[in-house]
Amino acid sequence: MTESHPPHPRITKAVIPAAGLGTRFLPATKATPKEMLPVVDKPAIQYVVEEAVSAGLDDVLMITGRNKRPLEDHFDRNYELESALLKKGDEARLAKVQEPSDLATMHYVRQGDPKGLGHAVLCAAPHVGHEPFAVLLGDDLIDPRDPLLARMVEIQARHGGSVIALMEVDPQQIHLYGCAAVEATADGDDVVKVTDLVEKPDPADAPSNYAIIGRYVLDPNVFDVLRKTEPGRGGEIQLTDALQQLAADEKVGGPVHGVVFKGRRYDTGDRGDYLRAIVRLACEREDLGPDFQAWLRSYVTEEM
Ligand code: G1P
Question: Which keywords accompany this UniProt record (predicted)?
């Protein structure tokens, strides 16, 4: 009997590059990974893993490096803490401790030499194999109420190839991002075809104001392209350069589409945005929100 395979296998694997040094947050990140900085009371990285899981990706590979052991510990059991909380009968906190270890199947690989985002993604090749997979960058926090990854997975299932997340930014800010030249599609206002890509262009040379934000659903052929990609901007192997090659030649790994995101995104790699994320999420929390908002209102009116 012949087995029938669906035309597009369900995507189950998420790759989270987390080897960066976090220099923008020194000295906080001297001995603590930047991914562990709390956003209200949860480390930033937990939001990212939760996002992957809620889009159906519960096999998570983190690309780590030296000094990143706290990431592994966070997603593991902590029996000492659990039994202390159990003894006290503190079930609410016990649930909070157990939550991260119950979320997903976690895997880790070390990047070794930090040779850029493209190189970090290439470290995932042996784990990912020949299936499409997602990449989530830890610095970008997508509000859970504005789902993005599920839409990207849906578009990838429809067209094959790769799908990247895009956001329109102030043209003066485009030099901070990968930038995409795009064409409209029949899939709706939020889906575009990507025709060209350039990493962190000067505003004068940018083909558009569509910035890549840190969510990708990738065709596994990207690995072969990455193996041949020369160091680009900043002397690093750039994921954007590999995707540019996929967009230029569809025969290699299918088309590249973009999902244009209009929801709430916080760049927790930027100190100002990190603070804004905390204030906003704290205001919206049922347990902390009412008191915090009242304090914030009086602080703003009296002190500012
Ligand atoms: C990386 C990518 C860039 C993308 C950005 C999104 O840059 O190289 O294309 O726009 O993430 O956050 P980084 O911010 O790591 O320098």
Answer: Nucleotidyltransferase, Transferase
Kindly give the pairing relationship between strand 256-260 and strand 162-168.
Answer: parallel
Residues 287 and 296: beta-carbon distance below 8 Å:
no
CA–CA separation, 69 vs 81, rounded Å? Answer: 18
Q: How far is CA 203 from CA 24, 91, 192, 208, 244, in A?
A: 23, 53, 21, 9, 18
Rounded CA-CA distance 92/11 in Å is: 33
Contact call for residues 163 and 14 (beta carbons, < 8 A) = no
pLDDT digits (tens, 9 = 90+) for 284-299: 999 999 999 999 999 9
Query: Is any ligand 1 atom within 6 A of the Cβ of residue 137?
Result: yes
Give the distance (Å) from ligand 1 centre to CA of residue 257.
17
* Whole-angstrom distance, CA of residue 212 vs CA of residue 166: 5
**pLDDT reported for residue 21:** 87
Give the pLDDT confidence of 194-211 residue by residue, as tens digits: 999 999 999 999 999 999
Q: Whose CA is nearest to atom 13 of ligand 1?
A: 177
Q: What is the pLDDT of residue 99?
A: 97
22 CB within 6 A, ligand 1: no
Pairwise CA distance, residues 84 & 193, whole Å = 54
Cβ density class 123-161: b for 16+ within 10 Å, e for less: bbbeebeeebbbbbbbbbbbbeeeebbebbbbbbbebbb
Reported as a pLDDT band with limits 50, 70 and 90, residue 304 is confident
Number of the ligand 1 atom closest to the C-alpha atom of 213: 6
- Taken in order of first residue, the domains within the chain and their CATH numbers are 13-269 (3.90.550.10), 270-304 (no CATH)
Whose CA is closest to atom 7 on ligand 1?
A: 177
